[in-house]
């Protein structure tokens, strides 16, 4: 009897315990999730100065490929590759012997033509005098006049031949067309070059130097206005950033805007001129042009890490009491670790910067002290944190 009674009591106790356990589980499942620990920063207004950036390439304002205008063999190179050369310096020499001989021959022909012309002139005068005395036939006098005119034309032709021969002889020496830096020679001593086709070298100036970049057609009025404005040595409207990220020290001035828009890309090329006293900018060097944005001024800024992107749109969480509301924002340019907010929040709004990954619109939050690390929402293994 006692045994049956004890067994019955144990059975009832187990059933009651199971029921209590199910109720506790149900309460646990229906309980509200704990607030998410977050850090907040107040949106502030500051003087935000920012630039539009464009990939750019440095270009020499004067650059020429040196080619020979006569055919022959290279006999001399009178420069050091890569050096600065003055205007008119003799750079290359081509075998001159045939051109000197041609010039001397042309001079000889000119002297012969002059002598013939002088003789023809003397004969013309003699026959004219005899004609006046009726001592010679008129036809002979007229022939003498024609011979003198022909001889004069032959002198002019011989003089033209001398000019051509002298020019060809001068072409055998290639000189610098302007002061600039000479490149690495494409030919060596003894190389045969052809007139007008063989590239010997390239020379370009280095100061001032241009920098080319492209802008969209909608920016043409803006850059036209920049082209017409004047700026001093301290003007920071247009700056160039070197390939290593270092800013170039000299300010830029728009030198030219291309004549037309590229119909395929809808862009136009702008050329900016920079002084280059230290020769740091080289033809073909790449970098970034930074143009001061006309909207620079007082703007709202917040930490960039507060931005949440969803479906191509940008949002932030604004703390309101013990919950966080999601606000859609319009972004301006990024300023290192900050970002300009053009629309969507107001100055002084408490913006969630830490813990945004775990938040939902209207979710409960627990604001941590500024600068304090944000604690995880749950304890080890994902279980709720102990109270």
TrEMBL record:
> Which residue positions does the secretion signal occupy?
1-21
Q: Where would I find the YknX-like C-terminal permuted SH3-like domain in this sequence? A: 300-366
Keywords in alphabetical order, please. Answer: Signal
Gene Ontology terms: cellular component: cell envelope; plasma membrane
Database matches in SUPFAM superfamilies:
HlyD-like secretion proteins (SSF111369)
Please give the PANTHER family that the UniProt record associates with this protein: ACRA/E-RELATED COMPONENT OF DRUG EFFLUX TRANSPORTER (PTHR30158)
* Family as reported in the entry's similarity comment: Belongs to the membrane fusion protein (MFP) (TC 8.A.1) family.
- Identification of the protein by name: Efflux RND transporter periplasmic adaptor subunit
Q: Which organism is it from?
A: Hymenobacter nivis
